[in-house]
Design goal:
Number of strands: 5
Shape: elongated
Order of helices and strands: HHEHEHEEHEH
Strand content: 5-15%
Number of helices: 6
Radius of gyration: 24 Å
Structural class: alpha/beta
């Protein structure tokens, strides 16, 4: 019989998993505090950003209630591609140019950015200025384009 030169397999995962279980059982209060902190952080960020709508929900709101898409990206990104009939007001100029949106104060205003992250602060600003129907679009233009929805460029 020939002896094998291979070493026995090392089982790292079961040992590490056992350590994790041991840590959780011994430090359950610490784990509970971490879970509570993460939950509060998530809820705070969600509330701060305002309500979010999907691309399809945004289209339905704009079409059925004569709303508007508000694109807050910089000028170069807007010119490259944007939603048809979107109003362009860069985020940095939003507070000074909010008068341009007065006719939409009682209608849906769908705030669009590149990834859906910057739109949260713009939506909060608009809501503070009386635009009670302002919503951010989840995923921003990246999601819009991923769904192959129509865009125009200048």
């Amino acid at each position: 019989m020939r002896a094998s030169n291979r070493a026995p397999p090392i089982e790292i995962f079961p040992v590490q998993f056992d350590l994790l279980i041991q840590f959780i059982t011994q430090e359950w209060l610490l784990v509970l505090a971490l879970a509570a902190t993460l939950t509060m952080l998530f809820l705070h960020e969600k509330r701060k950003a305002g309500p979010a709508v999907s691309c399809q929900q945004a289209i339905n709101m704009v079409n059925s209630e004569e709303g508007v898409f508000l694109d807050i990206r910089d000028g170069a990104e807007f010119k490259k591609s944007h939603i048809v009939d979107a109003v362009h007001v860069p985020l940095t100029k939003l507070a000074g140019r909010v008068g341009e949106l007065e006719k939409y104060q009682e209608k849906p205003v769908i705030v669009v950015c590149k990834l859906g992250q910057s739109a949260g602060s713009a939506t909060k600003t608009l809501r503070g200025l009386g635009f009670t129907r302002a919503h951010k679009m989840s995923g921003g233009m990246m999601e819009w384009q991923a769904q192959k929805l129509p865009v125009v460029s200048e």
